[in-house]
Each structure stands twice: as structure tokens, then as C-alpha cells.
Design a protein that fits this description.
By secondary structure, this protein is mainly beta. Among the domains are: 37 residues, no CATH class; 115 residues, Jelly Rolls, CATH 2.60.120. 0% of the residues lie in helices and 36% in strands. Strand 5 and strand 6 form a beta hairpin.
């Protein structure tokens, strides 16, 4: 069956067509078809450019809803001066465990006199804030030679989980230094927020204490 259909035009009737050469059909007439706006008897013509049918979207209104940004934007403060006690990087916490270690920016050192007790106190950090301890250094110095006894010398703590304590030998020659240096793999968080934390060296004959604690504060 032939693809082409012959049309005999009526008197005074012209049908818009374009003669083209098709690789399969040969030379044929292709009728022009008006792309309309859909209005009855409408005369508005669609515009076809080199890249295809042009669409006027100037009158199309598309509602856009939702949130496309964070309520709080992160700001780098690496080049800004920070207030006392502030930290320059975030710490992720899960319960009492800190999952990111960061450098301590605070330190307290307490040095006593021979035979006197020494208390190193980290002041209350503020509402909702804890102490995160990264290092505890305790030094026991003997000012006089001491013969050992049955009871060791023990430094104690308050407001730390489990109330850790540190034991030192009671016997020592004059000028002897005994030290303990704790650097936990993850910072130790104080047990109660906004509460002083202490490390205490007891009053011990012929002993001079020096206690240093490094820490930062956070929620």
C-alpha cells in the first residue's frame, strides 16, 4: 500500500505544505500543522527556534517550600581571639564518653610546703559544663629521709568517676622524687557539672607535693 495520499484541493482552498526529499519516501509534500494555544479559533502560534520549541515560563509560578540551610551555620574561629575557657574545635560526646580528643587549654598547679597537705582545685566550670581532664601529674618530694611504714602515702580526688586515688611509697631518701603522670586515651569527665574537682596530697611528714592538672570545659 502506498504511503502517500493524493488530495485534490477544492476551489479557492490552499493547504500549507512543504516539499521535502525523504530517503525512504522520495520527494513528498509535508503539511504544515499549527501548534496552537488550545483556545477555540485561537491564532497564537508556537515559536520554534533552532534548538526546538520555545516555552515562555515567565508566567509560570512554582511554589517552593522547605528549609534549605542549617538553622545554625558553622563559623571558623581559627583566626579570632577566643575568650578564656573557650575551645576552637568541637567535641562529640556520647553520655560520659568523649569520642574526640582535643588539646587542654586550661591548667592548674598547686605546690605545698614540707609536711603540708596540698589541694589542687579546678573551679566550677559553669552551668551545664564539666571538666574534661587530659593529664594529671602528681610529684612527691622527700625533704628528709624517711623509713617506710605499713601504710602507703595516698593522694585522693573528688568529683571524678570512681574517686581515683594514687599510691606512693612511704620510705624514701632525702631529695627523692616520686611521680605519677596520668594521660588517659580519652579525657576524663568530672562526675557532676558546675562543681569543683580536686586532687589532694595529704599532709605527710617530710613530704612536699606538687600537683598539676590539664583540662578543658564542655557540656
Amino acid at each position: 500500500m502506498a504511503d502517500n495520499v493524493a488530495v485534490t484541493a477544492g476551489t479557492g482552498t490552499s493547504v500549507a505544505a512543504d516539499e521535502v526529499v525523504d530517503a525512504t519516501l522520495g520527494t513528498v509534500k509535508v503539511q504544515f500543522v499549527k501548534i496552537m494555544d488550545g483556545t477555540l479559533d485561537g491564532a497564537t502560534k508556537a515559536v520554534v527556534g533552532a534548538t526546538g520549541l520555545k516555552v515562555d515560563a515567565s508566567s509560570a509560578t512554582v511554589p517552593v517550600t522547605g528549609t534549605f540551610w542549617q538553622a545554625t551555620q558553622p563559623v571558623s574561629a581559627a583566626s579570632l581571639p577566643l575568650p578564656t575557657g573557650a575551645v576552637a574545635e568541637a567535641t562529640v560526646t556520647s553520655g560520659a564518653q568523649v569520642t574526640q580528643i582535643r588539646a587542654a587549654i586550661l591548667a592548674v598547679t598547686a605546690v605545698g610546703a614540707a609536711a603540708a597537705a596540698v589541694t589542687n582545685t579546678l573551679p566550677a566550670a559553669g552551668v551545664g559544663l564539666f571538666h574534661y581532664i587530659t593529664r594529671i601529674n602528681i610529684v612527691k618530694y622527700n625533704t628528709v629521709a624517711v623509713v617506710g611504714g605499713v601504710t602507703p602515702v595516698t593522694a585522693t580526688s573528688t568529683n571524678l568517676p570512681g574517686s581515683p586515688a594514687w599510691t606512693f611509697a612511704s620510705a624514701a631518701a632525702v631529695g627523692t622524687v616520686a611521680a605519677t603522670d596520668l594521660e588517659p586515651s580519652s579525657p576524663i569527665r568530672s562526675a557532676v557539672a558546675n562543681t569543683a574537682t580536686t586532687i589532694v596530697g595529704p599532709a605527710t611528714a617530710s613530704v612536699l607535693w606538687r600537683i598539676t592538672v590539664y583540662y578543658f570545659t564542655a557540656a
